[in-house]
Design brief:
Oligomer: single chain
Number of domains: 2
Number of helices: 18
Helix content: 40-55%
CATH topology of the largest domain: Rossmann fold
Radius of gyration: 23 Å
Bound molecules: uridine-5'-diphosphate-glucuronic acid
Strand content: 5-15%
CATH superfamily of the largest domain: NAD(P)-binding Rossmann-like Domain
Number of strands: 14
CATH architecture of the largest domain: 3-Layer(aba) Sandwich
Strand order of the largest sheet: 3-2-1-4-5-6
CATH class of the largest domain: Alpha Beta
Length: about 425
């Protein structure tokens, strides 16, 4: 099939490359010329394992192109809307300007029978408004809402082999036809038996924010338990293992630490609360305010713990921070807990040196005043405290004995509960972690 993808960021670039792998002919459209040029060279504008290979493969087939000219999407049968929906400045609500701009671009190109597929995360009610815009434009095209659940770092796998498909459509003949078109697009994964849930537009939009809210709640739940553990001398990692054995609870997303960040979970729960307020059901989601607060408290606790470890003050102390990305296998620093802690420590007078295997360039753009080192060895030189804030495998696998030779004081704080406390203590380190004795 001929497919267009509007918006070639984390979601769209991966989606475009994956759709080519599935045998489709794909044109990716984005307004950022540098990003388009980079994608056309086969260079991913962000770090995502497997994406460069998939881009090169797609470009070599001649079935994948990227452009800034929306008109090149004319003649496509299916148009995916994958643009960003960031948090509005100074508000909790989502900024929908890019979604509407994509529809503006699409309207003159659409033909009867074409399908517009919304994948961006939007406040419920947006899809209905967009469907009306298509009707008013008399395009004859039909809108389907098909939320995306990919995780950064696993985006290629999650797109090619998703754990489920959700289609939201109007219950009429066009809606039905549009769903069958989407079946053709996803024929390979559907053939593998991937579950599919067909729903109305509202449910499909809600599924996405409900899923992210549940994940955020799970993380904040275990971080709240970490606060209890800190007050009682209990160990949150053992607690998570123990409750996680109950299949109804499950162990995944129960890793306590410095909390969640990134371009999705924080802004999605806030936009969800804002939308609930508009709908007059704000009480239904007041718990998400607490989820957000627990999450933010972990960052403050991290700085407090550093202060305790440094004997009451971090002023003038040299602190090495391992990790800047919001999670491993990503160079994304949007709302990164690691950088938020780094900035706080620096503002409170510490001499902070940050390192990360992939995210230093992005981190430097966001916080140019922070000091950065390319390697762990450089970052920890003469450090009086080492803090692990992103659980990159290379940090999890560090040899505490080797590292001990480079630091001034053998103090480590494990902000992700990812190190082996026994190995570090045996090597002479004072080991502290969030939620552990
Ligand atoms: C999240 C969802 O997991 C995806 O399903 C969704 O498609 C995506 O948002 C989106 O809306 O586009 P992502 O932002 O890539 O994916 O990151 P996650 O893997 O969910 O991690 C989010 C944050 O939670 C990270 O900062 C991570 O370190 C933290 N986290 C995760 C914890 O603190 N503890 C855990 O147990 C798990």
């Amino acid at each position: 099939m001929r497919i267009s993808v509007f918006g070639c960021g984390y979601l769209g670039a991966v989606h475009a490359a994956c759709m080519t792998r599935l045998g489709h002919e794909v044109v990716g459209v984005d307004v950022v010329a540098d990003q388009v040029a980079s994608l056309n060279r086969g260079a991913a504008p962000f770090f995502e394992p497997g994406l460069p290979e998939l881009l090169s493969e797609g470009l070599a087939t001649g079935r994948l192109t990227f452009t800034t000219d929306a008109a090149e999407a004319a003649g496509c049968d299916v148009h995916f809307v994958c643009v960003g929906t960031p948090q509005k400045a100074g508000e909790n609500a989502a900024d929908l300007r890019y979604v509407h701009a994509a529809i503006d671009d699409l309207l003159p190109l659409l033909r009867a029978g074409d399908v517009v597929v919304g994948k961006s995360t939007v406040p419920v009610g947006t899809a209905e408004a967009l469907a009306e815009r298509l009707d008013e434009g008399a395009s004859g095209a039909e809108l389907i809402w098909n939320p995306e659940f990919l995780r950064e770092g696993f985006a290629v796998k999650d797109t090619l082999h998703p754990d489920r498909f959700v289609y939201g459509a109007r219950s009429n003949e066009q809606g039905e036809r549009a769903k069958r078109r989407l079946d053709e697009v996803y024929a390979v994964a559907l053939g593998e038996g991937t579950p599919k849930i067909e729903a109305d537009l509202a449910t499909a939009q809600l599924v996405k924010v409900a899923a992210n809210s549940f994940l955020a709640t799970k993380i904040s739940f275990i971080n709240a338990m970490a606060e209890l553990c800190e007050a009682t001398g209990a160990d949150v990692t053992l607690l998570a293992d123990a409750i996680g054995h109950d299949a109804r609870i499950g162990r995944r997303f129960l890793n306590a630490g410095v909390g969640f960040g990134g371009g999705c979970l924080p802004k999605d729960i806030r936009a969800f609360m804002a939308r609930a307020g508009e709908l007059g059901v704000d009480q239904a989601l007041t718990f998400l305010r607490e989820v957000d607060s627990i999450n933010m408290r972990r960052r403050v606790r991290m700085v407090d713990l550093a202060r305790e470890e440094c004997g009451g003050s971090i002023v003038g102390r040299r602190i090495a921070l391992l990790g800047a990305a919001f999670k491993p296998d990503s160079d994304d620093v949007r709302d990164s807990p690691a950088l938020s802690v780094a900035a706080q420590m620096q503002l409170q007078g510490a001499h902070v040196v940050v390192t990360d295997p992939q995210a230093i360039d992005n981190a430097r753009k966001k916080w140019p005043d922070l000091a950065f080192a390319d390697t762990v060895e450089e970052a920890v030189k003469a450090a009086e405290l080492v803090v692990v804030l992103t659980e990159w495998p290379e940090y999890v696998g560090l040899d505490p004995r080797q590292l001990a030779e480079r630091v001034d004081a053998k103090r480590v704080i494990d902000g992700r509960n990812c190190l082996d406390p026994t190995a570090w203590r045996d090597a002479g380190w004072t080991y502290r972690a969030l939620g552990r004795p």
